[in-house]
């Protein structure tokens, strides 16, 4: 070791943020193991690295006793006082035992320790950087693919995007740029592991937050999201300012804002609906683009029976029940949809007694 080594540690401290003293303590601990392994000894030793010159010394530590039973661990009072006249019983005497060729072993050990600590520190920095981005959007580049995952280069780390978390419309190849949602960040023995998704409802929510300034500023709130990735989504929004239209803010002038999101999601259809404290109004809005005549709420069952015009029944239910299913997810209520004719037949309500409810929503294809 030398002054150059100490200066190199100081440079690492400046560049990597790893304390020089912590590195030196780690090297000293590692050198104790190296000394015992290379010189086949079981005695207690202490390794000292001079913080200014880099000079390394090894000291055997022996307890001062009246009668020596194990010379590797003990030293007599008389022998200890030849080293230092102030030693007394039960003191620990230190005797320098630095081997002649210990410098070579020390250099190898120090290099391994420093490399390992730098790697650990960099992993820690990466983990801390990405744990703050959990449930956020990141951009990356497709590096490779195996039978289960896409591996995405995020710059300092490679993230995992399971194939099950891809939208049906997603087709990526090596070198393609991918915008994904961070679902989980784990700190493992191999370093930080980051898991991504393209199907998570959080991706849609974050895209709106990035695209709509009113949402980013907190004027418009996203109250609920329901998504069948790659096909159709519904998002319920509410404005804290009565003068700001939440649906219009999300749609944007000539639909530009929402169209940007639709393009990012490869044509996924998006229904933007106004959230309401009134369950009747909220459920009616959630069934967009279908028109709703009446909503009857059953609080105890948390179920809403919805009556729609005859010609709107298939639209309200949607292909394979998708529209009704997403509306139920969005509102958290079970929804039973009936046509006017069915309602008249089952409940005896004449059509003239029904009036169409006002709905506030927009559907983007």
TrEMBL record:
PANTHER family linked: TRANSCRIPTION TERMINATION FACTOR NUSA, TRANSCRIPTION TERMINATION_ANTITERMINATION PROTEIN NUSA
Subunit structure: Monomer. Binds directly to the core enzyme of the DNA-dependent RNA polymerase and to nascent RNA.
Predominant cellular place of this UniProt entry's protein: cytoplasm
Protein's UniProt keywords contain Electron transport: no
Residue stretches of biased makeup (Polar residues): 353-365
Superkingdom of this protein's organism: Bacteria
Free-text function comment from the UniProt entry: Participates in both transcription termination and antitermination.
Family assignment from sequence similarity: Belongs to the NusA family.
Record carries keyword Repeat: no
InterPro entries from the UniProt entry: KH_dom-like_a/b (IPR015946), KH_NusA_2nd (IPR058582), KH_sf_prok-type (IPR009019), NA-bd_OB-fold (IPR012340), NusA_N_sf (IPR036555), S1_domain (IPR003029), TF_NusA (IPR010213), TF_NusA_bacterial (IPR030842)
Domain S1 motif: 135-199
Pfam families documented for this protein: KH_NusA_1st, KH_NusA_2nd, NusA_N, S1
Protein name: Transcription termination/antitermination protein NusA
Keywords, comma-separated and alphabetical: Cytoplasm, RNA-binding, Transcription, Transcription antitermination, Transcription regulation, Transcription termination
Cellular compartments annotated: Cytoplasm
Disordered: annotated segments: 342-365
């Amino acid at each position: 070791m030398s002054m150059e080594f100490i200066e190199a540690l100081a440079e690492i401290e400046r560049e990597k943020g790893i304390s020089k003293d912590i590195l030196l303590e780690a090297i000293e601990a590692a050198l104790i193991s190296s000394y015992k392994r290379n010189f086949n000894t079981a005695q207690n030793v202490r390794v000292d690295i001079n913080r200014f010159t880099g000079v390394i010394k090894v000291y055997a530590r022996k307890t001062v006793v009246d009668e020596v039973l194990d010379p590797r661990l003990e030293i007599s009072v008389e022998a200890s006082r030849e080293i230092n006249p102030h030693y007394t019983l039960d003191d620990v005497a230190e005797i320098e035992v630095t081997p002649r060729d210990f410098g070579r072993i020390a250099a190898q050990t120090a290099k391994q320790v420093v490399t390992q600590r730098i790697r650990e520190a960099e992993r820690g920095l990466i983990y801390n950087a990405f744990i703050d981005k959990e449930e956020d959007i990141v951009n990356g580049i497709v590096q490779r693919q195996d039978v289960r995952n896409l591996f995405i280069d995020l710059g300092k780390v490679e993230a995992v995007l399971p194939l099950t978390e891809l939208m049906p419309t997603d087709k990526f190849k090596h070198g393609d740029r991918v915008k994904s949602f961070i679902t989980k960040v784990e700190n493992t023995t191999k370093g930080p592991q980051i898991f991504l998704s393209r199907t998570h409802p959080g991706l849609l929510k974050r895209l709106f937050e990035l695209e709509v300034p009113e949402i980013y500023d907190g004027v418009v709130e996203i109250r609920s999201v329901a998504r069948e990735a790659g096909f159709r989504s519904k998002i319920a929004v509410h404005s804290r300012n009565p003068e700001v239209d939440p649906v219009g803010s999300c749609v944007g002038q000539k639909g530009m804002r929402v169209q940007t999101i639709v393009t990012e999601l490869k044509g996924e259809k998006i229904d933007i609906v106004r959230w309401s404290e009134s369950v009747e109004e909220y459920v009616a809005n959630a069934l967009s683009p279908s028109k709703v005549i009446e909503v009857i709420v059953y609080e105890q069952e948390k179920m809403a029976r919805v009556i729609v015009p005859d010609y709107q029944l298939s639209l309200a239910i949607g292909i394979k029940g998708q529209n009704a299913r997403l509306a139920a997810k969005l509102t958290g209520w079970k929804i039973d949809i009936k046509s006017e004719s069915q309602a008249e037949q089952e409940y005896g309500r004449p059509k003239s007694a029904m009036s169409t409810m006002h709905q506030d929503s927009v559907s983007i294809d």
